Amino acid sequence: MTTTEPLDVQPTALALLLLGREADPRSERGVECPGDLPAPSDPDLVARARAAKARLGDRVFVLGHHYQRDEVIEFADVTGDSFKLARDAAARPQAEFIVFCGVHFMAESADILTSDDQRVILPDLAAGCSMADMATAEQVAECWDVLAEAGVADVTVPVAYMNSSADIKAFTGRHGGTICTSSNARRALEWAFGQRPAGGGKVLFLPDQHLGRNTAVREMGYSLEDCVVYNPHKPNGGLSAGQLRAAKMILWRGHCSVHGRFSLESVEDVRARIPGVNVLVHPECRNEVVAAADLVGSTEYIIKALDAAPAGSSWAIGTELNLVRRLAKAHPDKQIVFLDKTVCFCSTMNRIDLPHLVWTLESLADGKVVNRITVDPETERFARRALEQMLALP
Ligand code: 13P
Ligand code: SF4
Question: What global pTM score does this model have?
Fold first, then answer.
């Protein structure tokens, strides 16, 4: 049967997100870029970006995360992992504009760590992070109530991965915790366990269960049984009071949609294809992948390991594809392959492209501040406390 009745179908939040329109109230990011962007086919984009950056001079400082596209990285004054970029942003008080080529939570952190008269700009407001979206302020507040009910909130220290919204960072600061990144997660956990009475302390690690588990189990000698997973979509997180009391690590049920795709099969497959290959993965990968790898570390660690590797060695890298491709190009004397056969860019990191960067730089040079990222003062106060605790880690 056919019908001529119009279908009353409203686009879902996800469809709007993909179309780059309107707002998704469940997301830590915006979803639209209100600019008149140059066409991606414009042959003058590189020259326009250069000219606009030159017009701005020292007034602008461009930060580029390692997962950014080559066309964007070319214009970065510094590149780094999220820890290095947070420090670099804080160490540049003379720059009027910090253009953050990365994702929303990184730009928020930069705004928190810079002075009030510095303006942090994200070239595309839709560059969010699906992992950061997996922990909302309401869910985390509810989790804390569950811990209080089980009688363990007093002995629990929150440790939040940098990949979280400013609200989650503020929650962490309010409850005496710290932020961490993939390059200092072990130091953050050691500090956190040292904050509570000997033997009785626990950590609530959010939002990446994998980084929390991998750091505790692989680097600190905790067992998988010491870890429980709090699922915000289940009553009481899906855990009994007894399970919460027995756990050392309470892991939030979040993950990275890029690193979560690497599997044990990808490791076995590459070992069969390339004899003697070194498997090097990011700690956001699943525990069985990390356990099967030869080396594990943050993006900055991965870059340094390849710099130090002997010519002729073979490497399979489990992290975002823009970085792996750049590393393969930079080291023609080594065999560097992507760990998984299916292509795997981070789609939100990739939203920052040359047209968005040109539009941003030209707008700033013309005196128009676009896509400014600001965190409200109350959130900023407590989030800064947690970020400064991270920067002060031994
Ligand atoms: P790092 O920059 O800390 O290595 O984290 C990787 C990542 O997923 C950033 O979003
Ligand atoms: Fe988020 Fe993963 Fe992309 Fe990093 S790589 S921004 S954690 S989705």
Answer: 0.89
Closest CA to 140 of 112, 183, 108, 177: 177
Where along the chain do its domains lie?
Answer: 13-128+348-375, 132-256, 259-338
Confidence of residue 73 (pLDDT cuts 50, 70, 90): very high
- Please write the tens of the pLDDT for every residue from 256-275: 999 999 999 999 999 999 99
Annotated binding site for iminosuccinate: 65, 82, 161-163, 182, 282-284, 299
CATH number, domain 259-338: 3.40.50.10800
Of ligand 2's listed atoms, the one at least distance from the Cα of 163 is 7
**CA–CA gap between residue 343 and residue 138 (Å, rounded):** 35
Residue 253: CB partners within 8 Å, gap ≥ 6? 134, 209, 229, 230, 231, 232, 233
Asked whether residue 33 carries a pLDDT value surpassing 80, the answer given is: no
Q: How many percent of the chain have pLDDT more than 70?
A: 90
- 156 CB under 6 A from ligand 2? no
Pocket flag, ligand 2, residue 106 (CB < 6 Å) = no
Q: What are phi and psi of 386, to 5 degrees?
A: -70, -35
Dihedral sign for Cα atoms in the order 161, 166, 168, 173:
positive
Is-contact 147 244, C-beta < 8 A? yes
Residue 368 is classified by DSSP as -
User: 132-256, superfamily in CATH?
Assistant: NadA-like (3.40.50.10800)
Q: Given this structure, which CATH class describes domain 13-128+348-375? A: alpha beta
> What's the CA-to-centroid distance between 334 and ligand 1, angstroms?
24
173 touches 140 (CB < 8 A): no
